[in-house]
Amino acid sequence: MRSMLSRAAAAFNAPALATAVALLGLWEVGVRTATTRFEFLPAPSEIGEALYGAIRSGQIIGDSMHTVACAVAGWIVASALGAAIGLALAFSPMVRRFFGTSLELLRPLPAVAFVPVAVLLFGFTVTTEITVIVFASVWPVIVNTVAGAKAIHPRLLDTAATLHLSRMQRLGKIVLPAVLPSAMVGARVALGLALVVAVIAEMVGNPAGLGWGVVTAQEALQPGLMFGYLVATGALGVLLNACLRASFARLFPGIRELAQS
Amino acid sequence: MTTQSSFECEQLCIDLPGAPGVRRIIENLDLEVGKGEFVSILGGSGTGKTTLLRALAGLTPYSGGRAAYEGRDVRSPVPGMAMVFQDYGHALLMWRTARRNVALGVEGRLGGDELDRKVQNAIRMVGLERFQDEYPWRLSGGMQQRVQIARALAMEPNALLMDEPFGALDAMTKASLQDQLLAVQAETGATVLFVTHDIEEAIYLSDTIIMLKGSPARIARRITVDLPRPRDQIATKELPEYLRLRHQLYEAFRHEIHA
Questions:
Q1: Of A67, A195, A250, B202, which has the fewest beta carbons less than 10 angstroms from its beta carbon?
Q2: Within a 13 Å sphere around the CA of B72, how many CA atoms are in the beta-carbon half?
Q3: pLDDT, tens only, B234-259
Q4: Is residue A178 part of a domain?
Q5: What's the pLDDT score for residue A260?
Q6: What is the CATH number of the domain that holds A102?
Q7: Within a domain: residue A162?
């Protein structure tokens, strides 16, 4: 706890905060003096008020919970699936031969383009949302897992051989832990994507959560609330990433990449 | 027990694939290493010392002749042997503490007190007690190499194969690890096959020095080191016999050193 606090203190960046405050101030002044001419551009104070109201009423909390739950559920599926596919691609020439091309063709497909397809298949449901999230966030996990598996140093395999480890022991004690750091890098990228795609899927597929909140606020001509939803989405992204880093560092204290990042 | 040999090579040939095609690294090599003997394989860089050691460890296949350990042909890693690699940074599991690295080879078949005892004994032999709960990447090079040696010792090997284990260490760390290795060998009675390109290290440690030369490599000389044990970094290196061997070996390698 102490180290977390001191790290937070060390990470506190006064000039950056000052810049942000100054920009917000400029925005506030711009709107109040009507220098800016957008009809629906609220001042930061108005956004803050709307956000505070939405938090007090519980509306934005419920929407956040929905979005986070979907993003995290999709991310968990994507991480497990991505790691499994990545390992299979890395270690089985057979899997590479039969599935490599199909995967390469699917990969560049934008996840958003997949939303209408998912809606036709699953309707305007949570299933649609999570399917699209999984589809979008599985790729970085696959790519990083394959890269990690290819980067295993031959000396580690020599070590496994001279210590007479069985195939299963080699997989469990050497290969998987060696792949883990890069798979986790993929998982971190995937979590960011999962949140983004969750919001998009909510705007066009599943009418719920923060994405739908932005859309309804826009349609109700409540720009303060609309921006409030954006602020909440951004804050959630930061929060999720911080939680992930902290839990990885706690779960795997021996991983240098985590301890030093 | 008889004074049976530990390692034996007869007309051993090793070929390795290279960019221009298959290249013969070792040709018609005959070698016999007695049980409990400390044998150094000495040669310039690129002569095939490591290749020979890897073949004897069962890590690199050989293409002709025979390589045997305790009377049985070596085709894959054989129980009773343990290997220490030069690049400890790649050979250690960075996500395991020093102690759990040491346990890697024995934890599969031992448990509880028995495992603890073996691991602690290996850790003691290399003087790693204070650092056993630290991760390798937080340790100095010398300490990391100690972890790797302890991992090999925990297997309680009859033969220890070491590929330039101290090659990447500074002179002081090197000297201290040499002495520790000699003490370990005196305690365990293990056969040691030690690859090095350091002439003085080979003399200081060995009973026998095998000089590899040429391409493909053959044994150019086999030198018996008749220095009293236990050896001492200062006293041993001032003995006339040590200086004579040193002179003889530098002379033999003179053209390679200048090359």
A1: A250
A2: 10
A3: 999 999 999 999 999 999 887 665 54
A4: yes
A5: 55
A6: 1.10.3720.10
A7: yes
Residue A148, C-beta contacts closer than 8 angstroms, at least 6 positions apart: A86, A178, A179, A180, A181, A182, A183
The tens digit of pLDDT for each residue in B153-199 reads 999 999 999 999 998 889 998 999 999 999 999 999 999 999 999 99
CB-CB: which of B96, B105, B108 is closest to A254?
A: B96
> Mutation test of the interface with chain B: which of A153, A155, A156, A159, choosing the one with the most B Cβ atoms within 10 A?
A159
CA dihedral B42, B46, B50, B56 (to 10 degrees): -90
Domain boundaries, position A155: 64-207+236-260
Number of separate domains in chain A: 1
Q: Do B85 and A161 touch (CB under 8 A)?
A: no
Q: Which tokens belong to A81?
A: 């699936």
pTM over 0.95: no
Mean residue pLDDT across chain A: 89
Which two structure tokens, joined as six digits, stand for B161?
Answer: 């194969």
Q: Which residue range is the domain that position B121 belongs to?
A: 88-156
* Average pLDDT estimate for B73-92: 94
**B90/A156 Cβ within 8 A:** yes
Distance (Å, rounded) from C-alpha B220 to C-alpha A180? 47
Inside any domain, residue B81: no
pLDDT value at A8 more than 80: no
In a domain, A41, yes or no: no
- Max CA-CA distance within chain A? 77
B→A contacts (Cβ < 8 Å), by residue, are 57-59, 76-77, 79, 81-83, 85, 87, 90-91, 93-97, 104-105, 108, 135, 137, 151, 155
